Amino acid sequence: MFTPQLIKGTITHLQTLEGKSNFVLSGGARAATGAAAAGAAVVGSFFSSSILARSALALKEDSVFFTCVVNGIKLSGCFNTLNITEGEEVELVIDTNHNQSEGAVYAIRKPKERCLWVVPMMEGGHGSMKRTAVFLPLALLKYFLPFSFIFIFLIESFIKGSIQIISPLITVLGGGVLLYCTMAFGVYVTFIGKAKLATQVIAALGFDDPANVGLGLVSTAAVKQWEEEHGKPFPKDQHDGFAFYY
Predict the structure, then answer these.
(1) Which of 48, 59, 94, 193 is surrounded by the most beta carbons within 10 Å?
(2) Both 149 and 217 in a single domain?
C-alpha cells in the first residue's frame, strides 16, 4: 500500500549521480500504478527487482538520482533537477518499508526558500490532471486546425477548380473531434494513474484540496506575488528553473 508521509530532518550521507536508470518506485507506488518495470534493484530490500521504465516518469537523461539518510531512514529518489546539500534541513514526502528503515522520496521541500521538488508527472492531483486532459488537447488543436483547414481548402479548390469551403470545413471539424478525443484519452491514461499518487503526495505536503492542486499554477502565483512585493524578477536560476514555489 502506498502511504506517503511527511518527515523533517537533516540530510546525511548524501550521494548523487546522473542517470534515470537507477531509480525505482517504492513497492506501494508500483502496486498503486501498476507501472511496467524491468531490471535489478539498487537500494536494499525495500525495492523489488524492478527498475522503473524510462518513459514511466518522464525523467530527463541527466536526471539526478540520489541516496541519503534522514532521521535514520535510508532514502533514495530521482528528480529532473535538485539542489540539496549535506547537512541541510529539509522536509520530505516518503514511502517506507514495513519497519521504516528504507524508503523512496517523492517530494522534497525547503521551507526557508519556499520551494519544492516532486517526482516528475506528480505535479498535480487527479482533479487537476483531468482538467489537463480536457484543455491541453484544445490548446494544441487551436494551432493545428486552422492550418489544416487552409491546406485542405487549397487542395480541394485546386482539384475541383472552384472555391470549396463547406467540404474542407466538415473534414477539419470531423477530424478535429476525432483527434481531440484521441489526445484527451491519451493524456488521461498517461497521467491519471500517477495523478492519484500525486494527490496523496500533495496531501502529505499539507496543501488544501490536494486533488485539485496544480503545482505549476501554485508556483506561478507565488512567483508573481514575490515579484510584486520585491519589485524585481524572481531569481529562479538558483534552482535551474525546475523547482516549484509556494
Answers:
(1) 94
(2) yes
